[in-house]
């Protein structure tokens, strides 16, 4: 990252609201710079979206996910033909405007501009995770064997290879193309004869993302940080800066960081900010099995990720557009299970019901990071979409440098003022 030289700022007293990967990483980064930090969450550390993801530190994903622009893909989404996307008519008024902006920002020129900034959060993400993994003694949770994107048809494989070659040329992301025979040797338990796969050998994966986030939280407390259960919605400005109600009473600090992921919008709207975040719901379920994939695998044409986890094989879905408090819709996870059974002999489901959570996404594909335009000491840090688990420590580094008086070159593109 391109750093702008500046003197270190004075010690700050900060409350970080939200103890997912982004919030915990923020607390650690601020603590490392000598600031006093209280981490607050209603549930605990790593219990929400950071628990439920696919567990990939996805350093190859330097280009943000673009809105599909081909007519074929749009028709499939509109008719709900695939398992990649599900949507609900009642939720469209909430999602329509940001999704239209997302579609516009996914045009090639706009997407290239976003990529130029986004890659700073992704390409070196493992470099920011590495010292935390070591210090937290969490190496047993990490695999450094890469993962595969599987393609069932030759047409899809050829298109993906061409795209991967362009990314390798532009960003130096290594990959290996495997034909059907190579894939069958690498994945002997797979039942279906697929066209092939792309393997990303340098990507790290995690066998329990919630446990990794929790280990970072324990590290924060071992280093002298404080954690308290509390209600983020109780946040209010006071004479000392900001305060929030916790199990230990109302706590105050000069600064507060909102790192609440999909729940951040409740607070920003109350404070008068119209930040066009939209939420993608995702589902997962674990399955017991004797023989499964040799490593994590994205079934690219079905939008399903299969990840060997401590609890079994985690089968995760694509995106569902629905209201935050809408009941679970099992359609996607049932399709994901069915397509996964085409590949491997899945055993029984481990959980009685699937887990689901929400990804906080921005229409320009960049997170919101910086001080709120009209509230001194109110810092926003959310909107990482599919990659909060990957980018949390790198993004926290950017915010902590900014709060310490050392803004980096990428900071301007992430500033909350771009929406206000």
UniProtKB/TrEMBL annotation:
Pfam family, one: DAO
InterPro entries: FAD-dep_OxRdtase, FAD/NAD-bd_sf
Transmembrane segments: 12-30
Listed GO CC annotations: cytoplasm
Domain FAD dependent oxidoreductase: from-to ranges: 13-402
UniProt keyword annotations, A-Z: Membrane, Oxidoreductase, Transmembrane, Transmembrane helix
UniProt GO molecular function: oxidoreductase activity
Highest taxon in the source lineage: Bacteria
Name of the protein described by the UniProt record: FAD-dependent oxidoreductase
Native species: Paracoccus alkanivorans
